Amino acid sequence: MEALAQAAGILAFRTAGEKPTPNSLFFFAGIDEARFKKPVMPGDQLHLHVEIERHMRGVWKFKAEARVDDQLVAEARLMSAKRDI
Fold first, then answer.
1. What sign has the CA pseudo-torsion 69, 2, 49, 14?
2. For position 23, what pLDDT does the model report?
3. Integer Cα distance of 73 and 56 in angstroms
4. Measured distance CA(42)–CA(68) in Å, rounded
5. What ranges in the chain are assigned the alpha helix state H?
6. Sequence spans of domains, the chain
7. Which residues pair with 72 in a beta bridge?
8. Which fold does the domain 2-84 belong to in CATH?
9. CA 85/CA 70 separation, integer angstroms
């Protein structure tokens, strides 16, 4: 889930056409429908797939999946918020 959340943050920055700065942060705001389907073993190649579902007023919602050998191993709906500090 941590890797999926980080991939979602990168996608949000890239989609917004921004680069991370010391004055901007993406906060992990929530997780829904998290499911772990199969165990992941050392040496497995994990492929992360993240889609933006919605973006409104600095809040981003994502659909995220992790796959190994094209088999779903984890999925969740993630939410993050961008804040300037």
1. negative
2. 82
3. 29
4. 12
5. 2-16
6. 2-84
7. 67
8. Thiol Ester Dehydrase; Chain A (3.10.129)
9. 39
21-69, pLDDT tens digit by residue?
788 777 888 999 999 999 999 999 999 999 999 988 888 999 999 999 9
CA–CA separation, 36 vs 7, rounded Å?
18
pLDDT exceeds 80 at position 84: no
Cα 75 to Cα 78: distance, rounded to the nearest angstrom:
10
Give me the sheet containing 71-84, strands edge to edge.
24-36, 71-84, 59-68, 46-56
pLDDT grade for 85, boundaries at 50, 70 and 90: confident
What integer pLDDT is reported at residue 51 of this predicted model? Answer: 95
pTM: 0.82
Confirm if 68 and 23 have CB atoms less than 8 A apart.
no
| 3-class state of residue 18 by DSSP | coil
